[in-house]
Every structure is written in structure tokens, then in C-alpha cells.
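Both lines are quoted verbatim for reference:

——
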Amino acid sequence: MPMTAFVVSGVSASFVPGRGQRVAAATSMRSPLPLRRRAVAAPLQLRMRDWGVRAGGVERFADALVETANKIASPGRGILAVDESTKTIGKRLAGIGVENSEANRQAYRELLFTCEGLGQFISGAILFEETLYQSTRDGRQFVNTLNQIGVIPGIKVDKGLAPLGGALPHETWCTGLDGLSERAAAYYQQGARFAKWRAVLQIVPGGPSRQAIVENCYGLARYARTVQDQGLVPIIEPELLLDGDHTIERCAEVQEEIYSTLYQICQTQGVFLEGTLLKPAMTLPGADCKNRVSPDRIAELTVRTLERGVPAAVPGIMFLSGGMTEEEATINLNALNTRKRKGPWALSFSYGRALQQSCLKTWMGKPENVPAAQQALLARARANGKAQQGQYTPGSEPTLDRTGTFEAGYKY
């Protein structure tokens, strides 16, 4: 089968058309330029002739998808997830005694999106549809304020969970494929450059069922290819809930099955892996498991599980926090990035509650508290930026979140 090569600063890699997957890398290439010219320093460049993607729309955006995915997964940075539904953000606001009104939701998100310096540690922000079209009080669109501080806007595109007939009683599938292509095109026009779709699976005796795994992985793959055709990088989120008393070893076993199924279906659906990101849970014991484990053990099994199931073509793995405390989520991320691994992907974060709890508790809905709340947000963003590089010292950044935010059967 013919292969296509590209050059990255003197390093070659090859792709098989139709597969979109790297099969050879880091081999020396003879320079096409005279030595005299190559001695001059030049920025890193990708000369991409053909990504070998399956036709259908994604080929128009292939270079931009790769660029966006790699920017989001860049060193020392991660994602701020602020895509809570109106109902869910209402719970957060109620926790600080603030009414769930559009004006209060707008004020809180303006606090986040105008935080100077946030882009040093945050590369992307996942928004709810309402937020994508909102503006600051002085009329600047949120997508523009995010771009101004160096944060790429993204959008939650799924329409929530529904019961999965024929599966276990609690199992669900994720809705939202109908009309997704048109919505994705509109979101791109508004300024979004990546998307997120959350499927949910749960470990119980005899589960998750094979039906639930296949159905949810199929939905993730169809979503991914659909939004890629409209120019959005898909964040693929097969969340395995913390609910239950299962061991960390059982979690690893189930995650391996999920990842292998997911990427087999992504292959059949023509998903361009170099233009995607994965958002999984870390490999953890259930919330009710009596056997507590260390961050090093979490890192060991998480990395092993990823290496067994996630292709090297995926640029970044952006972990969800899943109800861990702010500090716990940061310490576990740091452990992951201090562990040697074969996998080339960036290991980073896409945290919602684990980035916002101290910020919310500092803000309390009061305009005079905005500067202090932004500093609280910056502190946790900085902590996770350090952890993404394996450089975080536990306790070195402040937190007001001592108990975590785990909710059984968590829904956005």
C-alpha cells in the first residue's frame, strides 16, 4: 500500500492512506536543502501532503484539526470544563447561595473568561450552548474574550443520556446525533474549534453490558467523525463512573475493553485520530471500595491501561476529575506525569469541578470578590499546569475544596 511522508524538523513519519495512523517515525531523512541553509534556525514546520483521511469533509480541515488538537494538549496546559447544563450550574450556584438566573450565570462565566493570565495554564474551555452565544456586560462576545487570553473555545454537543432498551436497567446511551452536522457547522461559525460528547458507563455485578459498551462507543465514533467534517476537534469522553465498590484492577479491566472497542469502531467510521482528544477517567477504585490506593498505583494502572488500548496517533489524553477534590486531582495528574511510559500522548486535564470549587466559594456571587475569585482559579490552573509536567509539589497552591464533589450517577 502506498505511503505518504511528512517532515518535522528533519524527522520523518509515514501514514497509510485510509488508516490515518502513524506506522514509522523518528527515522533520519536526507535534507532536501543545502547544509548551509539548514544551519539557520527555523520554526517547527509540518509539510503535510496527505493525511490519508477518508473523504467526506474532514480532509478540508485536516491540518487545522491537528493544529488545534496539539495546541490544546500543549505542555503545561489543559482544559477548563464549564459546560454544565442550566440545571447543573444551578446546583453549583445554590451551593453558594446564588440564584440560578441567566444574569448570574453570565456574571460567573465572565469572571472565568476575563481572568488575565489564565491562558498560560488553560488551552481550551468547553462551553454550554448558552455560553457560546453570551457576551460580557460591555458587549464583547465570550468567544472573543477567550481568544484574547489564549484559550480556544469549545462546545458541548451531546443532548444528554437516555435509557438503553435491552441493556441493564440503569444503562444509558447518549443522544444528539440528529442534526449534529448542522449544529456543528453553526458552532464553528460562532467561533468554537473543538467539541465534547460524554457517554457514561458504570461497573456493577455483570456490567457494564457488552451492549452498553458497543452502543456508547458507536455514538462517540459517529459524533467524532461528524464534527470533524465541520472543522471541530472532537473530545471523545467514555466516562466510567466512580460509583460502586469495585477494585482498581476491575476498573482497569473494564477500561481496556472500552478503549479497544472504541478505537475499533473509530476505525470503521473513518475518524481522523490525529485530530481528536480522549477524555477518560483515571483508573481508580470505586467510591465505596474499602481498598484505598496510592497516586503511584493509580498512575501505574492508568498508564498501563492506556498503553494497551489508545493508539499513538491520539495527541492528548485529557483526564476528567470525576468528583475528586481539587488537590487529589492535581496530585494524581502529577503522578501520571512522573511515571515512565511508552505512550507518546500528552497526559493532561479537562477539569470542571476540580478547577472551580475554590473559585466559586471565593466569589459567592459578589462583584467585589471577583479579583480574589480569579486568583483562586489561577492557583488551581497553575497547580494543574505544573502537574501536567510532573512538577507539582503537594500543598503548594491554595484550595478551599476539602471534601470533593462526588455525586452518585453524576449528570451534567
Notes: The chain has two domains: 4-52, 66-387. The CA atoms of residues 235 and 351 lie 13 Å apart.
